[in-house]
Amino acid sequence: MQTDIHHDFVSCLNILFMRKLFVLAILFLGFMTLSCKKTIQEAFDQAGGNILTDNAWVVTNYTEGTLDVTSEFSGWEHFFLNNGVFESRRGTTIVQGNWSSASFVSDFVVSHPSSVTAPISKLNGTWQVVNRTATSATFRRTVSGVTLQYTLAIK
Fold first, then answer.
1. Which of 14, 74, 138, 139 could join 151 via S-S bond, C-beta 3.0 to 4.6 A?
2. Strands 85-90, 77-80: parallel, antiparallel or unpaired by DSSP?
């Protein structure tokens, strides 16, 4: 009888130990998953930042509601400088503004002085990043009920 009690006691301890070990393993795996996800996202953001600042960009599509005004951007090249300057060039014309983005994943802000006219002024605003690849990004925002959307691609 003593052996049965001892055996039951040891079995109970083993079950408790296994449960605790299982919980710790789940917590550890959860922590590692979150840590790896953050590291991957940081690496992606860094690569995205380099792609952004190391290239000339062109507007390949710009719509105002159902109106396609892409042709207004013909000949313009856009540059995201590391110091936060957004520079647009066409021939000898250079227009400068500012750009910012926490991670170029969810939102993106471009601003120019009020003296800047269309088409470059149409890039102003806080834009939602709706698609991003290694060679292009699409942005969207709504102004007075009209959806504006444009795509920048590496030249």
1. 138
2. antiparallel
pTM here is: 0.69
- Residue 124 has phi, psi (to 5 degrees) of -65, 150
Residue 67, burial from CB neighbour count under 10 angstroms (0-12, 13-18, 19+): exposed
17 vs 145 pLDDT, higher one: 145
The letter for the amino acid at 99 is: W
DSSP state of 72: G
- In the chain the first and final C-alpha atoms are separated, in Å, by 84
Long-range contact list for 113-119, CB < 8 A, 24+ apart? 118/72, 119/62, 119/69, 119/72, 119/73, 119/76
The single residue listed with the structure tokens 């690569």 is: 47
Residues 6+ apart with CB under 8 A from 33: none
Burial of 48 (0-12, 13-18, 19+ CB in 10 A): middle
pLDDT in tens, 104-120: 667 889 999 999 999 99
Distance of alpha carbon 93 from alpha carbon 71, whole angstroms: 17
